[in-house]
Specification:
Length: about 240
Amino acid sequence: MNCFTRSFIVRTFSALIIISLLQGCAKKETPVVKQAEKPVDMALVNKAQPKIPAPEKLPPATLQDVKAAVQRNLGDNFVISSRFNPTYMVGDFNGDEIEDLAVMVEPVDTKLSDINGELVNWIIQDADQYFIAPPNARTVKLPEMHRPQIEKDEIVLAIIHGYGARSWRDPQARQTYLVKHAAAAFLGKSKSFNEKYIRAIKLPVRSDIIKASRDSKRGFIFWTGSNYAWHANNG
């Protein structure tokens, strides 16, 4: 066997070995290393969640408490009305399970322009001007509504929504509604689901409603989910 033949055989044999090694590597799959799943530390999760303080069991409201809340939210623009007795009531009027304050107030004449201004910290609305979508309605037409104005010597119902553990007494309880056509003699309160009218319109929230007498007609003031409304009892 000459040198050329011997060299050809060696090169061929080496090529076969390399091809065999490459085929073996191709068939061998790279193992997937799975990372071990770490258990969730619920203590850390709960710690990261913002905690809403549970409402405190507070003593009955006093007139001094009510005056402080009115001063905090309405400043010197309103005074508590003396033309109704009682002049205030507490309850969960918007259905968030936090106690709210409802109190009759009168505007200070010299403050009317400020009260009805664009940059006020309260919401003025009319208990006779509201909209509730019919149950199961697919399309609805919203009625035209105008921004109400509070007039001289007009008594309005101020409702201060509660916040946190101290409800409407809390310094951060700032959401206030001034409701026109809701000046009425308080007759008590009841649960909204106890009223046939409320059940019929299928409101999204359960709340306390204010039973009252307005212009010698009994009815109630209730939360629609976006504002306060007056409903006169039939019969």
